[in-house]
Amino acid sequence: MASKITSVPPASISGISRPGRGGVVVKPKDMKGTLRRLWQLTKGQRRGLGWVLLLSALASAASIFSPYLTGRIVTMIVGGDAITFVLLVLAGLYVGDWLIRFLQQYLTASIGQRIILYIRKVLFDHIKKLPLAFFDRRQHGELMSRLTNDVDNISITISNSLTLLLRYIFTIVGIFAMMLCLSPFLTLVSLAAVALILLLTRTVTKRTKKLFSEQQKDLGALNGQVEESISGLSIVKAFCREKQMEEAFEEKNDKLCSISTKALIWSGYLMPLMNVINNLCYVAIAVFSGMLFINGSISDIGLVTSFLLYVRQFTRPFVEIANIYNSFQTAVAGAERVFEILDEQTEPEDRPDALELKNPHGDIVLNHVRFGYNPDKAVLKDISMSIPAGMKVAIVGPTGSGKTTIINLLARFYDVSDGEILLDGHDLRDYKMKSLREAFGVVLQDTAMFAESVRDNICYGHAQASMEQIREAARIAGADGFIERLPNGYDTILEQGGDELSQGERQLLTIARAVLANAPIMILDEATSSVDTVTEQKIRKAMLKMCEGRTSFIIAHRLSTIRDSDRIILIEDGAIAEQGTHDELMKLHGKYAMMYQTQSGKAL
Amino acid sequence: MKLILQYIRRHIGVFLLSTLFLTMEAMADLLQPTFMSYIVDEGVINSDVSQILRYGAIMLGIALVGAFSAVMRNRFASKTSQAIGKELRQDMYHNVQMLSLENIDRLHPASIITRITNDVSQIQGFINSIMRMMVKAPITSVGAIALILIQTPKQAPILIVIILVVTILTIANMKIGYPRFGTVQKRLDKLNGVTREFLSAVRVVKAFNAEDEEMEKFNKASQELASANTDALLILALFSPLINLAVNFGIVMLLWISKNQNSSDIGKLMASVNYMTQVLFAVAMISNVINVAVRAMASSGRIQEVLDEKPAQKIVQHPLTPKIEGNICFDGVSFAYAGAEREALCNVSFTVKAGETIGIIGPTGSGKTTLINLVPRLYDASSGRILIDGCDVTQIDEALLRSSVAVVSQKALLFSGKISDNLRWGREDASDAELQAAARTASADAFIRETEKGYDTWLGQGGVNLSGGQKQRLSIARALVRNPRVLILDDCTSALDAQTESSVLSALRENSKDMTVLLISQRISTVMRTDRILCLDNGLVQGFDTHENLMKSCRIYQQIYDSQIGGRHNG
User: Fold this and answer.
1) Which of A83, A232, A601 lies nearest to residue B259, judging by beta carbons?
2) Quick one: pLDDT band at residue B341, thresholds 50, 70, 90?
3) I want to staple A383 with a disulfide (CB 3.0 to 4.6 A). Which of A151, A369, B233, B391 is the partner?
4) For A363-439+553-604, which CATH class?
5) Contact call for A265 and B75, based on CB within 8 A
């Protein structure tokens, strides 16, 4: 059965496991459209792809011709003829097969990787332009898996499926033609086997499909239970819930075990039953051809040999094609998820007549600004204020009142739904985005650090800054002290993305970063309660120092921080409730005064 | 490996049965070509139809036996692998539930989760594939060699040489390929790292106009990954066709040495060619199984670690069951976290009378949370004793202790299930009225009623559909349902605005007159109103007195006061 070798499972060769029989198949929504878009992404690799496809068609040659040659050799051995020449042809065929396979696999790999690289680049290029709303809405883990796993799977599965599909189709057609030439009657017998196998595959996969998707659901439920009970183990223990947790786990575990056993058993029926049909067919061919040989319809024993070899590999591609089609569908569905991201609206492009914001003054006016993260729920309702350059503004208010939203609008992370924000007399949207963001120095609550050196973290976004400037910025932020105590000073690499620093230290670094940016307008979102009070004072001092001579907005959670501000704006429920200096507001005996007293513990 | 064997031993009967069927299956496959050769040699060549039919019937019979064996083997293998997976998960989960938090910290929760989920599936897959292939491969190889030796002994050397060559190629493939796939994994981690960093810092990236720098970083990592991948795949592209070629050449050689074959033995030649391919499949299978095995070994090591972990806290043989009033006494207590150099608490002593409300304050890292975790024995003191109503907590019945002490932790952890289910964690048999009363005290009743299904509202994992403040209020309510003697509040009102916080705290005071309350807060305004305040710094008690006295005597306390409330002291 010489050429059976040509069908060593290709999946194991390429090292990629395809969703096998009965695995969960995800159907694409728009196969045609998605394929067309995928095709566009292969630009530049099409010539190579053409070669790959040609080679995979050629790779079927060995399967098609070697059984015939083997049969011929058998005939010649029986007839006592010299077989050297045909044997050499067979050997040549095998060598050719080897070369073609090597080339095809290598080309598939390298072109596949180039396509992956390109898709990733396009994807990231798009993602970086997406508005913040997108990132706030999506889970990071999910986005990451799209950038890495999904892209990998798409390209690998599609290039593998395509090559295999082509090879199998050629194999089927070729073998069918060869078989017809050798004996139409025996061909009919083997077609019956193919029909039986297809019927069987259909019946079994119909059953397993449901079982596998149920299994997936049960697995998800079990994983969820494990995750929440273990990450919350301290609470489980504090409330003595170990037993109940274990019972809940056991129930889910049992359910998963029984369903996956069922799924596995059912999908496992396929192979042996297919084998039976195959063997049945094999026996039938052996018996029929033997009888035909005896009554003289077939004169050539080699023909019988060839036919037996063909039968063995004729049925397999039919089943494989069904599988390949399934994994192909899953990959296309994955591609759809990637395209979904590519279809997300990016941040609006700068208007063609957009202004370059040069040396901004810092006058800011909000005119009847309305905004909601989703259209039916307004977070800011009609906010108006006018801030002259150089003023120190503090924004206070209860959680959820819309303080952080104002920052998001000022830095144009989001655009207003209605009304306008003017900077030096022009709408923010009239400026080029890049120049606008340069005008703002931002210290955010989340102290994001990068796994680079402390220096690179400070001059983030200003890579050309000199070492003196960096030191100066750190000094103003009051971060120089702890930086110099680090093992390599400014060159210390934050391997864990800043986790090795305390919350307060990270805060100081972000302040240094904003100092270095040297922007005329400052926006500071004060850290919440996670910093101790001594560090907090340090941070506060650094913030105040940085705000000198600039227009600045401080979102304050503790009123003690902002008493010296030029203007305090109390936001409540998306609207300005009170505004003025600390003393004015205290005299008002309104909400601010009450908040202040509650916080300083003087009331009640 | 020992671990896997140990679990297989529990199912040894079924395992052996499945191996038996597997052997039968392999034999059936092996016998087919032999009988085919009889059809050719005895039936076709001699033009004997009855022989053809006879051997055809035998082949059919063998095929049926083979199929039956395969079906049975499949049943047993599936059942065993799934059952072992289930038991492994169960045992791990059970053991983890028994562990102390100290153990969990050491193993890392995230790592434990992957071990219970991913690592177990690896093992499952491995066991399934042993029962499918591992045994079959040697049986097939040995059987094929034996049959060739018996029928056509002069072909045996070729077969053996080919098997050797294929084995060497397979080993070489793995030796060269593995490190490259290791590199791929590392580069993939790197790419993931860069992506994660970008996503979590996206606000900063945008604020600092650094999109292009991030793009450059990403592209570099992506490029590195692609080239590592191409490298690794090149090895595969090199070796797997080579293995095919080796076997195909074996067939050519077989035909070559048979060129002078007696024509009456032609069936045997056809059979040998068939055996050749069967052996190839066997070898290919082995390399697959080895792949799975390597991963399974690593997984089994990680699973073993969890199973071997012994609870760090000792279990008392004869626990005490005192009537708990709520008098707490720390007597020279020190504590250090596992692996930490510095003690988190250092010789802490103080006494709280039942019914007192104690505020605890101090800078971050001063040991506040550590201190309260010792009371319900989430951790045990390294030295010193903690007494509740005169009994050492390590001697008190654990269930009694934990049902008398309720903790509301900093992070409000809720579990998937109904709101009412979550509240009933406090006490299983609490009535609806009790739940509502607790929720009212925690200022949670109003927002619960505003949700569509009220107390029956389903919470997603971790209470994802609630805001931070709502979660905190629910977790306070959960503790109140317990109606504990000692209530511990660990800075659990941080997400509430000042007004809500003060209304929660005053409601608490009214409803917990006879409870001992330990209240941690960062806000001095919150602790000022407690009976006495414990001021911690660096694991040391700096003061334990009323607000007025601490203002006079405790420097750290004064500093905290100044920084938050300021006023005249600030100068």
Assistant:
1) A83
2) low
3) A369
4) alpha beta
5) yes
Amino acid making up residue A370: R
How do residues A360-372 score in pLDDT, each as one tens digit? Answer: 888 999 999 999 8
The 3-state DSSP class for residue A58 equals: helix
The whole-number average pLDDT for the span B15-35 is 87
Residue B116: which of A78, A226, A291 has the nearest Cβ?
A226
∠ CA B61-B66-B68 to the nearest 5 degrees? 95
Residues of B with CB below 8 A from A218's CB? none
- pTM exceeds 0.80 for this model: no
pLDDT band at B439 (very low <50, low <70, confident <90, very high): very high
Would you state the structure tokens that stand for residue A418, as one six-digit string? 């209605």
Q: Among residues 122-141 of chain B, which lie with CB inside 8 Å of chain A?
A: 128
Determine what percent of chain B is predicted with pLDDT higher than 90. 24
Q: Looking at the predicted structure, is the pLDDT value of residue B502 above 80?
A: yes
What are the distances in angstroms from CA B510 to CA B168, B364, B566?
80, 29, 30
* Chain A: residue whose CA lies nearest to B467: A400
What's the gap in Å between the CA of A385 and the closest CA on chain B? 23
Least Cα separation, residue A235 to chain B (angstroms) = 7
State which amino acid sits at residue A77.
I
> Look-up: residue for tokens 């105590």?
A485
Tell me which chain B residues have a C-beta less than 8 angstroms from the C-beta of A247: none
Contact check, Cβ <8 Å, A249/B93: yes
- Out of B39, B109, B251, whose CB is closest to A290? B39
DSSP string, B146-173: HHHHHH-GGGHHHHHHHHHHHHHHHHHH
Q: Does B366 touch chain A (CB under 8 A)?
A: yes
Residue A366 pLDDT: 93
Q: Which of A280, A450, A598 sits opposite B499 (nearest CB)?
A: A598
What 3-state class would DSSP assign to B340? coil
Tell me the ipTM for this assembly. 0.78
**Is there a contact between B117 and A129 if contact means CB atoms under 8 Å apart?**
no
B 374-403 residues inside an 8 A Cβ radius of A = 376, 378, 398-399, 402-403
Successive 10-residue mean pLDDT values, chain A, 604 residues: 32 32 64 87 86 88 87 82 86 92 90 89 89 78 77 78 86 91 88 87 84 86 84 82 89 93 87 80 82 78 82 78 79 85 84 84 91 78 90 82 84 89 90 88 80 88 88 87 86 78 80 87 71 70 80 81 86 88 90 77 44
b or e along B132-144 (b: 16 or more beta carbons within 10 Å of the residue's beta carbon)? bbbbbbebbbebb
CA closest to A495 among chain B residues: B193
Residues whose CB falls within 8 Å of the CB of residue A384, separated by 6 or more in sequence, listed in order: A366, A367, A368, A369, A419, A576
- For chain A, the structural domain boundaries read 30-177+334-347, 363-439+553-604
* Interchain contact B315–A (C-beta under 8 A): no
Q: Which domains are present in chain B?
A: 2-308 (1.20.1560.10), 328-566 (3.40.50.300)
